[in-house]
Amino acid sequence: MRATTDLPATTSSDNQIQTANKPFGPLRCHGLARREVIALGVGGCALGALGPSMALGAAPSARSEERGLNPLSWLNRGRDSFETVYEASTGVVAARMTDFSLSTPTGMMCRARLAYPVTVFDRMPLIVFCPDQECSGAMYDAFIGGLAASGYFVMAVDPMLQQSNTMGRSGATTVADHATGQAGLAETQFLIDQIGEAAKVLGPRANRVDASRVGISGHGTGAWKALHLAGWGVEGGRADQGRDGRIMAAFALFPSTTPSAGRLRSGAGDQGTLALVAGAASGLPIGAPGSNLLTLALPVQTTHFGGLIGCPAPGGRSGKSQPREARPLAATIAAASIFFDWGLKRKGDRKRTLLELNGRVVEGLSQPLTLNRA
User: Fold this and answer.
1) What are 326-373's pLDDT values in tens digits?
2) Structural domain includes residue 43
3) What spatial distance separates the first Cα and last Cα of the chain, rounded to whole Å?
4) pLDDT, position 178
5) Contact 231, 268 (CB under 8 A)
6) Which has the closest alpha carbon to 373: 298, 292, 299?
7) Is the pLDDT reported for residue 96 higher than 90?
8) Strand pairing of 293-297 and 32-33?
9) Residue 194 — very low, low, confident or very high, per pLDDT cuts 50/70/90?
């Protein structure tokens, strides 16, 4: 077995989200404007746009990090959690990204994109991200970086090699497998098994990754894969096929349309694994009554936020340039962060905050958010 990692890269201008009115928006670290960070002397938010030599403030003491004391949590106490992450996600993403690869016992090379906070304070749950078909994990830096900055270790599984035989299954991967998220389930589970290898990128703080708390997310066909691994499926099929019992919560973003669209049901028993499906109102699935499924309607024009995530065709189908939708993406990151705070970190107040998103007017969005429960 062989593991390789690149050197951790600090946040660079390539990872910046451009807002509609300003080139990069206010530089923020978990909701704090740059001048506030300087005034308070809080370090650990390496803003690549300023260069390594321009890091703000002094780094926290080793004793504080050993205790898991996060000064940013104290500074943001009393603030609305959605607003905090939303504002932070419109600026420079305070996260590090690096590539990771691991050879399986059968010789297949599995690749992933890792994202984690610039400064690791607390124990971090693991979030596995499944990209859309033919998209690499690096195409989702804006999304996975936003989640990582909220205190998560994120692993975006690269699906580029899932074109031939899959582990544990005979025969070739089919178009139908990709459309329903069935392709690459075993590879994704293998990488979850090997999270200890991926966590070594953190050096002496590798033990800060909490493998007992696992969430999953995905986009397009990857959204279906995330739902399948969490035990969700369309009525009439086997919802429990491919389910991974370690997954506690699933966030699915713009799941691709399937020919057999119907109500989503869980094969996990009871109400099912906690799941939130986000996308345009017209494309959201319906959950079985009484299940743990929530849906969030986003005011967006494209499924890839104008090219900020994924690999959209140049100019879209119409051949016209599409506006970048940085604000809707920031709202999506904030909603996902709150959802995982509830499902993985067991923060009870986040459930209330999430449910209160229904009808919430967010600055920069054309319409209020709409949240529904099955």
Assistant:
1) 999 999 999 999 999 999 999 989 999 999 999 999 999 999 999 998
2) no
3) 44
4) 39
5) yes
6) 292
7) yes
8) unpaired
9) very high
b/e string for 309-324 if b means 16 or more Cβ within 10 A?
bbebeeeeeeeeebeb
Q: 152 in a domain, yes or no?
A: yes
Instruction: Give 212-238 pLDDT, tens digit per residue.
Output: 999 999 999 999 999 999 998 876 555
Query: Residue 287: which domain range?
Result: 95-373
Helix, strand, coil content of the chain in percent (nearest 5)? 30, 25, 45
Tokens at 41, concatenated: 């002397």
Residue 54 lies in a domain: no
Q: DSSP assignment of 62-123, as one string?
A: HHHHHHT--HHHHHTTTS-HHHHHHHHHTS---EEEEEEEEE-TTSPEEEEEEEEESS--S-
Structure tokens at 271: 């109400």
Q: List the structure tokens of 295.
A: 């849906």
Q: Is residue 38 part of a domain?
A: no
**Percent of the chain with pLDDT strictly greater than 70:** 66
3-class secondary-structure state, position 153: strand
Taking residues 29-45, report their average pLDDT. Answer: 35
Q: How many domains does the chain have?
A: 1
pTM here is 0.75
Q: Where are the alpha helices (DSSP H) in the chain?
A: 34-40, 62-67, 71-75, 81-89, 141-149, 175-180, 185-193, 195-198, 221-229, 326-343, 348-355
Q: How far is CA 252 from each of CA 122, 216, 225, 333, 339, rounded to the nearest angstrom? A: 26, 8, 9, 12, 11
Length, in residues, of the chain: 374
Q: d(Cα 273, Cα 10) in Å, to the nearest integer?
A: 34
Asked whether 245 and 266 are in contact (CB, 8 A), the reply is no
Neighbours of 302 (CB within 10 A): 18
Per-residue pLDDT at 108: 81
Task: Write the CATH number for 141.
Answer: 3.40.50.1820
Neighbours of 114 (CB within 10 A): 24
Measured distance CA(83)–CA(235) in Å, rounded: 36
Of 53-57, 151-155, 344-348, which gets the smallest average pLDDT? 53-57
Q: What whole-number distance in Å separates Cα of residue 43 and Cα of residue 20?
A: 29
